[in-house]
Amino acid sequence: MNIDGKLAAQQLREQLAIEVKDLEAKANICPKLVVILVGDDPASQVYVKNKVKQTQEIGMVSNEIRLAEDTSQEVLLGHLYKLNEDTSVHGILVQLPLPKHIDESAIISAISPNKDVDGFHALNSGRLFNGEPGALVPCTPQGCVMLAKQHLGNDLSGMHAVVIGRSNIVGKPVAMLLLQENCTVTITHSRTKNLPEVCQQADILIAAVGIAEFVKAHWVKEGATVIDVGINRITTDDGKTKLVGDVDYNDVVDKCGAITPVPGGVGPMTIACLLKNTITAAKQSVS
């Protein structure tokens, strides 16, 4: 069966809209997100447009700052320093990737950890690692765990989760979140020996490796829950292009217990969790 990420994201946004109204009524605060886009990358423009639209739809304030491709790192940092000091701003997001002349790690480090709604700042990573409450957690990993729970229920205790990929954006943080859910977690990567055999042990398989249709049916245990994080554009035999995940959906769908499709799976939840993080940051600003 498919795990419907669109429906899950819609339900989460409905809950968040209620939280926004409550926060305004009780604390006279409306959560505000500022998104900075440097350059004119088409995919980034679509992502930013969707983020701004969905932010406004649930009653939050959203501002967009667009900067030219040749904007210097110093100018970008200047914008961040101003936003860090602006008490009306609760969330700051710099759309990645950045132009090559800008050091992404320096930009991420310059964002106030309390406004880092992407959850990439080292302080938030440390809070997640330590299991501290209030950490702003990367959005895609949050969405992955929520979607797994949608199918398996809220108690994931004792399940074996295998994560393919060890990035700071998905692989490592989703492993930490699954540990907090009392899963037994194995992180695999390109140098893992006997990778298919390791994946066959998974009750929950998270694919975040960035290789189109990498995971095949013989990698998957019968009845496993498969969360496909990949977004890859491939050319079909008739010359058209389409989006596929890191899992070979057609090969795996009849073997697994449930799977997130691409598109329509993890992607919608990522933006919904961004809104969730912004509301969390707004609440913490008055606590």
Quick overview:
Helices cover 42% and strands 16% of the residues. It is of the alpha/beta class. The protein folds into two domains: 26-113, Leucine Dehydrogenase, chain A, domain 1 (Rossmann fold); 139-267, Rossmann fold (3-Layer(aba) Sandwich).
How do the helices and strands line up, and which of them pair or pack?
Elements: H1 5-27, E1 32-38, H2 42-57, E2 61-67, H3 73-85, E3 91-94, H4 104-110, H5 122-130, H6 139-152, E4 160-164, H7 171-180, E5 184-188, H8 195-199, E6 204-207, E7 225-228, E8 232-235, E9 241-244, H9 249-252, E10 258-259, H10 266-284
Parallel strand pairs: 1-2, 1-3, 4-5, 4-6, 6-7, 7-10
Antiparallel strand pairs: 8-9
Helix pairs in contact: 1-10, 2-10, 6-7, 6-10
CATH architecture of the largest domain: 3-Layer(aba) Sandwich
Helicity range: 40-55%
Strand order of the largest sheet: 5-4-6-7-10
* Mean pLDDT figure: 95
Shape field: globular
Question: Can you offer a commentary on this structure?
Answer:
The chain has helices at 5-27, 42-57, 73-85, 104-110, 122-130, 139-152, 171-180, 195-199, 249-252, 266-284; strands at residues 32-38, 61-67, 91-94, 160-164, 184-188, 204-207, 225-228, 232-235, 241-244, 258-259. The strands form three sheets. A five-stranded parallel beta sheet has the order 5-4-6-7-10. Strands 2-1-3 form a three-stranded parallel beta sheet, sandwiched between helices. Strands 8-9 form a two-stranded antiparallel sheet. Helix 2 crosses helix 10, helix 6 (139-152) packs across helix 7 (171-180) and helix 6 packs across helix 10. The mean pLDDT is 95. The chain has two domains: 26-113, 3-Layer(aba) Sandwich (Rossmann fold), CATH 3.40.50.10860; 139-267, 3-Layer(aba) Sandwich (Rossmann fold), CATH 3.40.50.720. It is built from ten helices and ten strands. The chain is an alpha/beta fold and 287 residues long. Helix content is 42%, strand content 16%.
